[in-house]
Design brief:
Layout lengths: L11 H50 L5 H9 L1 H36 L4 H9 L1 E7 L3 H9 L1 H6 L5 E7 L2 H9 L5 E5 H9 L5 E6 L7 E5 L15 E4 L4 H12 L8 E4 L2 H9 L5 E5 L14 E5 H5 L3 H4 L2 E5 L1 H6 L1 H31 L5 H11 L4 E2 L3 H16 L25
Parallel strand pairs: 1-2, 1-3, 6-7, 6-8
Antiparallel strand pairs: 3-10, 4-10, 4-11, 5-8, 5-9
Helix pairs in contact: 1-3, 5-14, 7-8, 8-16, 14-15
Organism: Microcoleus asticus IPMA8
Keywords: Membrane, Signal, Transmembrane, Transmembrane helix, Transport
Family: Belongs to the bacterial solute-binding protein SsuA/TauA family.
């Protein structure tokens, strides 16, 4: 069945084509149902005739009986009428079940023969190229588990994975055609859109880890609060979500971005300088935050997403998923499968996090309230469609960067060329 994922496409022509395909699919389904209903009706009539023939034969054999028996049969007519009614109901139910059986059989035959929109799209694409930043859990789980490959291999589609240092590099690779699909911070998409890169935002993660980003200082640093960063050298990746986190953290304590000395470095570049004390602070994201993953790294946190944004962290610092326009326009069923499997990767990761947190709670090493939060989230989707609220928050980011002259002109993140909003969910 053609997916109804796309209600808004980058190009009007692609949208019209997709609507035509959807309409044709609905007509095809209606014709198939009508055909199956007719077959079921015929089967009911055939079975009914079979029962009638049996009744006639029984009646003929009854002619040798005495008139007395015939009179008794007449007296029992109401009982036979009840039996006849039950037979009719049974035949009708049997016909409906027969229709259902035929429908499932034809559907299975169609899927096995590869005559589905997904199979056709997979054969046309042949190879799916996915990019991911180090530490992006959902995509790393999906890559390790091989669920997407297992689902697409029967159609002859191969999947390749490439890691990148930052979301900015990912979207640039997307624009250059080096990859077809990726995930990364929402901030990077603002700078990429301002640079006229070609991409489409197609989904977002529902929750951002409250400790997922942090501002670190050396262990022996005299810097104790964000206010102490005035005049200091701060390392971060330009155009990344860390960039936005720093801007908002400074504003919260009354500092301007011009009050600090920005040192634009990728995380691998910044780490040795931070260790050597050549920068005063470092704004980082996973996997370098103060978690078990980063336990061996130097420094201590003076602020994180939770302290800066409170319960709005998921809205203010989102993680998005991006695709090339061709994937959105020409391969909608394939895109739907990708998003479903990314969601499975996220759901699996949340369950593992919940189990680990439960073990900590049993030994009184963690607040039980955290377990309750994770239990709620483990029952929810890992990624969701893009909505107006998400884009409004992202637009707020874009406006801030323009006001700081960090991007050359204002961008409209709700532009359908760059952001796919769906009226209905693509969930299964």
């Amino acid at each position: 069945m053609i997916s109804r994922l796309i209600d808004l496409l980058p190009r009007g022509a692609g949208q019209n084509i997709l609507r035509s395909l959807s309409s044709a699919t609905r007509r095809s389904a209606a014709y198939r149902f009508a055909g199956l209903f007719c077959i079921g009706l015929v089967s009911v009539l055939v079975l009914s005739l079979a029962f009638d023939s049996h009744a006639v034969a029984a009646s003929a054999s009854g002619n040798v009986l005495s008139p007395l028996v015939s009179h008794v049969n007449q007296v029992k007519l109401p009982k036979e009428s009840t039996i006849r009614l039950l037979e009719t109901v049974g035949l009708f139910v049997g016909g409906i079940l027969f229709c259902v059986f035929l429908d499932r059989w034809f559907s299975n035959r169609s899927a096995q023969s590869g005559n589905t929109p997904l199979a056709e799209q997979a054969r046309r694409l042949k190879q799916l190229k996915i990019g991911y930043p180090e530490g992006m859990t959902n995509l790393e789980v999906l890559r390790a588990k091989g669920w997407l490959e297992s689902r697409l291999r029967p159609f002859g589609l191969s999947v390749t994975w490439t890691s990148f240092l930052s979301a900015s590099a990912l979207i640039e690779a997307l624009s250059n055609g080096a990859i077809d699909f990726c995930g990364g911070g929402g901030t990077a998409s603002i700078f990429s859109q301002a640079a006229d890169h070609v991409f489409v935002r197609v989904a977002k993660e529902k929750y951002t880890a409250p400790k997922g980003q942090a501002i670190l200082v050396p262990e022996d640093s005299p810097i104790q609060t964000v206010a102490d960063l005035k005049g200091k050298k701060i390392a971060f990746d330009k155009g990344s979500s860390a960039h936005y986190v720093l801007v908002r953290a400074l504003a919260k304590v009354g500092l301007e971005f011009s009050d600090i000395e920005p040192i634009y470095l990728t995380q691998p570049q910044a780490l040795p300088l931070f260790r050597a004390g050549e920068v005063d602070a470092w704004v980082i994201w996973v996997p370098y935050t103060t978690t078990q993953v980063r336990s061996a790294y130097p420094g201590c946190s003076i602020a994180d997403l939770e302290s800066i944004f409170g319960d709005k962290a998921s809205l203010e610092v989102p993680t998005y998923y991006y695709a090339i326009p061709e994937l959105v326009r020409d391969y909608p069923d394939l895109l739907k499968v990708i998003l479903e499997e990314v969601n499975e990767g996220g759901a699996w990761a949340k369950k593992q996090e919940l189990e680990a947190t439960k073990r900590l709670a049993e030994h009184h090493e963690i607040d039980p309230s955290i377990v309750e939060i994770l239990q709620q989230r483990s029952a929810e989707r890992a990624i969701i469609p893009i909505d107006d609220q998400s884009l409004t928050a992202l637009q707020h980011q874009a406006n801030i960067f323009r006001d700081l002259d960090l991007i050359p002109e204002r961008v409209n993140v709700k532009d359908g060329t760059y952001s796919l909003q769906t009226k209905q969910n693509w969930t299964y």
